[in-house]
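User: Second chain of the day. Same drill as before.
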Amino acid sequence: MSESNHIEVWNRCLQIIKSNVPDAVFQKWFLPVKPISLVDSSLTIEVPSDAHMHHLEEMPLVDILGKTLKRVIGDKVNLFYNIQFVNSTVAYPHQMLEVAGNPPIAFPRNEREPINPFVIPGIQKLTINPNLNPKYSFENFIEGPCNRLARSAGERVASTPGNNPFCPLFIHSGSGLGKTHLSQAIGLRVKQLHPEKIVLYVSAHTFKTQYQNATVGNKIPDFLHFYEQIDVLILDDVQYFSGKSGTQNAFFHIFNYLQQAGKQLILTSDVAPGNLKDMETRLIQRFKWGLTAELLTPDFDTRVKIIKAKSANEGIVLGDEIVNYLASKVTGSVRELEGTILTLLAHSTFNRENITLDLAKKVTQQIVNVDSSEISLERIRNTVCDYFKISPETIVSKTRKREIVQARQITMYLVRNLTKTSLASIGSQMGGKDHATVLHACSTVSDLIDTDRNIRRYVADLERQLKGGK
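Assistant: Same format as last time:
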């Protein structure tokens, strides 16, 4: 290439770059750059300052710049910077695009590491503890229909962090259903498969506190720079950003940077993105970019697996009769199951008695009574089954017998009206029905309440039983 077409070449580069970066980024970082010369495959550009050059050399801008230059000029392109000071110009070579066979020439850089908000102020070295608990592994995460989608996506993310369609991976569920466990399992697997990756698990509350401290200390650039170094960021309970506009704005910029840099984000919340309150629309939209996966309340078979696994980890061997009893009575969350097993172990150890069915019933009664205020899908389903004298297996079966269909529809109606369970979740736990079937069932029961005194009495009796436990 001759020296005369450097302006044309750079303009071609700008056209490509403009279509691949936000307009604000293009205006601030690329438009001020001036092409100086092009000799063979060596392009020299002029930038306004040393800081401007360093920013162009950071991901993701350096990746965009490098790929564009190679596309326009060729694979063996060289890039040199002229930095325009007040009375002089200093030239530096670009650090990433040397001619093949030539060693890179280092240019002066700011060697100060960003402040790590996870260590005491003043410690500058960026050594990051990922904050992962080894017990929260995939091996200890019991799979079932309630979590299969989220777990499968998590394993995919862990194997190829940042290089998959699930960025962000947004996991949501009620309390105690495994969000923290699954998100940390992903981090642990990444560290196992990709030890060079920087992984960080942080709660939204901790992130918010760090941001507030950075604001008071006038260290927002250090705060942002720290999070821009993370390869896999796991942010737990993002609903705690609600109403915190400053924290949301900071995370918005971090999210954008990591996304553009090909990094991985894993987010958890107690509600789906669209149900987050007092959250900026632009942030909610980004939460929906990847995969949203819900963790549901475990079904009976999954609860059996959880009880056996957790009891084995605690060194307890439970008979099938006890396991099945616990699985049928403790129907809320995984955390409740764990608490029940630990309570059984405590009774057995401190009172020096064997774990019998009677002891299991005694302990379970205490656990269930404590949490009886919570009306769950499982509790409603069991109450309806007891009321109509049918089995839980029958009510979720494919039978079209009139009395079974009626009980199934009443269950869906009560769950829709007494809980915050989504239509998709109701359908999934009621025999794999779709949301349209759930809506039809709720509409049918609602109409029958107005026209059929028996249905009206059934629903009133069931609501009384369910709310009477509150």
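The chain has four domains: 3-93, 148-294, 300-370, 377-468.

User: Great, on to the next one.
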